[in-house]
Specification:
This protein is an alpha/beta fold. The protein has four helices and nine strands; from the N terminus they run βαβαβββαββββα. The structure holds inosinic acid.
Length: about 190
């Protein structure tokens, strides 16, 4: 797969441009700041897909924030389908008890990953727990998730870029694009 990757030719369509992302991040950051007043906020990002969004969003929020990172992997699924079985690869590095927490996600698809994370983080007794996702794919939702901030609602297409991957590649694209189906019709090696 590595040799065949072509960052330009593999993208069928740009779904959300770099400029649209930048404008949305600025808007979300201002809203999040206004909603939290001067109470400090802890942003919890879920690696690896949320990395660019987290880096941009935290700088768009005009109130004091702390950040923490988790990494989860779903197992039992395929490269384009999540299974809902979640394994924690990296846990929080500090307690969130009594804190206002905002989960920063790249995309909510079936909602199974976030559903697991929500239950896990609620168990750590934060004062409040909210969710911000850059992308929402509601067509495939299997569980109801209370999402507080959504960047873009997108159709049921497999997308890459701005952190999102296929077989760990394409994360460094500056935009969100639809991967040509022929790229994932042959599974990654
Ligand atoms: P969910 O558990 O089905 O909501 O899936 C959540 C995770 O699946 C996301 O955090 C992504 O890592 C991955 N995912 C879902 N849809 C896409 C997509 O269109 N492109 C890349 N990754 C995706």
């Amino acid at each position: 797969m590595t040799a065949a990757i072509n960052l330009v030719a593999d993208i069928g369509e740009v779904l959300v441009s770099e400029a649209e992302i930048a404008a949305k991040v600025a808007d979300l950051g201002a809203r999040i700041g206004a909603d939290h007043g001067d109470r400090p906020l802890t942003l919890v990002s879920v690696l690896k897909g949320s990395l660019p969004f987290m880096a941009d969003l935290m700088r768009a929020i005009p109130i004091p924030v702390r950040i923490d990172l988790m990494e989860v992997s779903s197992y039992g699924g395929t490269s384009t389908e999540s299974s809902g079985l979640v394994r924690i690869l990296k846990d929080l590095s500090a307690s969130i008890e009594g804190e206002d927490v905002l989960i920063v996600e790249d995309i909510i698809d079936t909602g199974l990953t976030l559903n697991y994370l929500l239950r896990y983080l609620r168990g750590k007794k934060p004062r409040s727990l909210r969710i911000c996702t850059l992308l929402d794919k509601p067509a495939r939702r299997l569980v109801d998730i209370p999402v507080d901030y959504v960047g873009f609602t997108i159709p049921d297409q497999f997308v890459v870029g701005y952190g999102l991957d296929y077989g760990e590649f394409y994360r460094n694209l500056r935009f969100v694009g639809v991967l040509r189906p022929e790229v994932y019709s042959s599974p990654p090696e």
